[in-house]
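Task card 7
Instruction: Convert sequence to structure tokens.
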Amino acid sequence: MMRTVAVLGAGTMGSGIGYVCAEAGYETTLYDMSAKALAQAQTYHESLMKRALDKGRLTPAAAEALCARMIYAADLADALRHAELVIEAIPEDLQLKQDLFRLAESLVQPDTILGSNTSSLPVTGIAKAVKQRDRVIGIHFFNPAPVMKLVEVIKGLDTGPTVVDRVVEFVQSLGKEAVVVGDFPGFVTTRIGLMLVSEAIFALQEGVAGRDEIDKAMKLGYNLPMGPLELGDLVGLDIVYHVLEALFDNYKDARYRPPILLKKMVEAGRLGRKTGRGFYDYGA
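Output:
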């Protein structure tokens, strides 16, 4: 069974994944070249632990042990030296991911699994950058990672069956549910989920209904926990836009084209919760 995990990228997803791994008992190293990002991740982790302590879900001793298992590193070689599993969580840019995987392969052990948290890019394409393609796999967590139960496990064309089995076991050890899917752009959740968000934006753009009416209709009509426009704000409208562009580029199907309204909002910096304003105003 794996004991050591390295998470590459200390943004929203990486910091959440790192916390989940450390909480489950793994020796976890969170890497980022930005000291600011690492400091923000550490502050986020402290807030999660405080909340858990206040609610009695975590004892002081357990919190201390969790802190001891969570390492913050600005040196990639140090972060990867003992890793049995790597989870990359950097922006959705194929070239960036390939460059990082190429470098990571030169720094890890021959049997280390190389995972990507990509939500839309082809795992097979990422694996092109390495020599041992059988150990590359998609491990797609959802935001916020400490809360969301699903993890999509994506098999690339060359991913070895043993690697799939080990990653599914790892996901289950985190207390989460694994769904194994094929390597098609958008996989299952992104492909279907973003179509819901996109169609809601088109409906708003075309004046079919207002923001509140669209979200209310979808929540009450389909028993959704939040409306699709709220979901877009949570994911980040820039991410929604770039993923839709990637889907359109891969499938050449007009249904994946990003709405003009979405493009304008991204250009205006109205990206959702992370900027304080998207379809809704979050008072930032």
